[in-house]
Fold:
Amino acid sequence: MKKILIVNASKRRKGNSYALEQYVIDKIKDKAEVVDFRIGEKGVRVCLGCDACKRKDKPNCVQKDDFTALIPEIDSCDAMLILSPVYWEQFPAQLKAFLDRTYSFMSFSTPDLSMATRKDKKIAGYFFCGVGPVDVYSKMVENNLKSFTISGFTESKAYVAGNVNEPGSVMNNSDYIQVADSMIEWILK
Ligand SMILES: Cc1cc2nc3c(=O)[nH]c(=O)nc-3n(C[C@H](O)[C@H](O)[C@H](O)COP(=O)(O)O)c2cc1C
Structure:
């Protein structure tokens, strides 16, 4: 069974990320081991930039919080699915903090700059926005997902659903659900 890490970066409990998270879990719970991580309900501190992680040869962090506890799951999963709003044309701050903390996987002594155990993992980002432009936001998400290469996510797919300001409204759009279904299929493959 594949291990799928779902990262929900929204604080809006009736919002789109939460709605799609539930949809995805219902779809895959019998086919995969699911690790569900809601950043907004966890403590993920900002990266200290202290480089203490560079003194070891395994992903690690001196901070003791929910991100550090998640490092083994990030390292060992088959795929990570990020569900998140776009805030001010960018990753919301809580997701940026999560990304920054994956610096704990970076190595200065290996050619590929990574001390991840697995470097064959998939990452999918399904994002939501009120207005757009979705093509610009999609490029932003694609670019940011590339930084997860250091934590071993070498294959990526990104999608931004527009015009979903209304909480949970993604579920009313069959095209958006179809995209989610093919993303699920891809991460399970
Ligand atoms: C702080 C903040 C910033 C936002 N910035 C943008 C933006 O730059 N572009 C946009 O189209 N929508 C923006 N939105 C709207 C959200 O992306 C949109 O409501 C999204 O569906 C929220 O996802 P969620 O329901 O999963 O929380 C913003 C919302 C907030 C609260």
